[in-house]
User: Fold this.
Amino acid sequence: MTASLIITGGRSLTMDPARPRAEAVAVSGNRILRVGSHADVMAEKGAGTRVIDAAGGSIIPGFVEAHMHLFAGAAELGHLQLFGTRGIAELRSRIESYIRANPGDDLIIGEQADYVIIGEHEPLSRHHLDSILRDRPILVFSPDHHTAWANTIALEKAGLLKGRKLGPGNEIVMGDDGLAQGELREGEAIDPVRSLSSKGMRDRLGLVTGGEPEPYPGKADFETDLETLRRGLAHAAAHGITFIQNMDGNLYTLELLEELHRRGDLTARVRVPFHFKNSMDISILEKASMMAARYRSDMLSSGFVKLFMDGVVDSGTAVMVDDYADRPGWRGEPLFEPRRFAEIAVEADRRGLQIAVHAIGDGAVRIVLDGYEAALRANGRRDSRHRVEHVEVIHPGDIPRFAELGVLASMQPPHPPGNHGLPLEPYLSRIGEARWAHAFAWKALRQAGARLVFGTDWPVSDVDPLWSLQSAMTRGRWNNAMPDNRQTLAQALHAYTADGAYAGFMEDKTGVLKEGMLADICVLPVDLEMADPGAFRGIAPRMTVCDGRVVFEK
Assistant:
């Protein structure tokens, strides 16, 4: 057997403890044929072998993006981008420039607007947006997507200007004049405005309802959605990502990806969950089991259930054990009552489904861990690999429970305030200094034996894994009493490759450069071990290989 592809001339960080470093990698078909010295690997060269010179750069496993939103992120590539915008003048300039370039949009959608985009002591309101755009609806999302701001005409068209009764954890912020102030918290408040777009919300159904498009899209709309996903997959491939663990989903998303795979256009492995919403009956888990049985290949799979337990700290919708520091008497409202979540966890676990739950506040994390413990008691211990997504604040008493229960901590290096260009406020004041040491507690979780897996939550944060590695390795402290949570290159890279593969039940197939494993490889133009981690951002892969196929090449 000769190699179809050889990558040599670099320094390979394999993630394989038996051979942590190598000079070259040979691929045959969709498998890794040989890992070793240049001479050993070149012995596999045949007449048709393509040889790539890594020119001293790093050869690593393809990145495993353990938490992202592929369909929504792909659609947002064409929206108004507001990352880093400061002040009303710059906001006006960016909105007006976007409108000139996109005159036909019936709803202007902005992304990545910081909570302090106007100023630390002046929240964005409909009045600010009205002063820029009065006659066309506009909806501006915060980076975490749990808060959005709309102008008056958007609120009127969506029937929200005078408020509306919403479920727990959702809020239309009202002004002193009895009208909506413009700030919308969580999906039930935001979605009526988002649905004003004539382009529809098929890209967000897996996140918003977990249900299917009605009516089912015709051929033209189906092709449009395929093209949207192609853009998202190409964006991921250009960043070295070969395995995507999607954190929203429905059957329609899987059907789109299945068609891309049939056409030869699926450029990453993708795992898509069933999204269980708090309005659903537990019997709907039969659909999750159906999705798991139908999609179980190495390229496209389901097999897990995603839920949201709370919102986010900045808007006060995260659930805390104790009161918010800046809002006495308020701890947030869980989206699932603890007893009900435990019942869902027991049933999903009984069905052999993995569970992944968005839990940001320490109160939400505790509810989720309690539910997983209930599942373990009811069904016995198994290799469930249940996950808690984000774990932004954790009560110190709950830290050991991750290892005790075999639960994965799925965390995002771009998310700590002060990282990735994020402001410190209002986050730090909301949780209060007493909680700082237990926020984004990477070090404490590792020391307690928890397995960490990394991702970006794209489009909440930039999908670039190198920037994420930089944030993991250079994270600062908010005061001198805080532990140093900086990760080593080995820790961060392992959490982005081998540990991510483990989270997706693929550790015996990918995430490691080892003979016989699936050929998922990223070639970088620099030697990561010699480079300054403070300069990782923007390092673009030279090549991405997924399943033995070159899916990106610079």
Remarks:
- The radius of gyration is 23 Å.
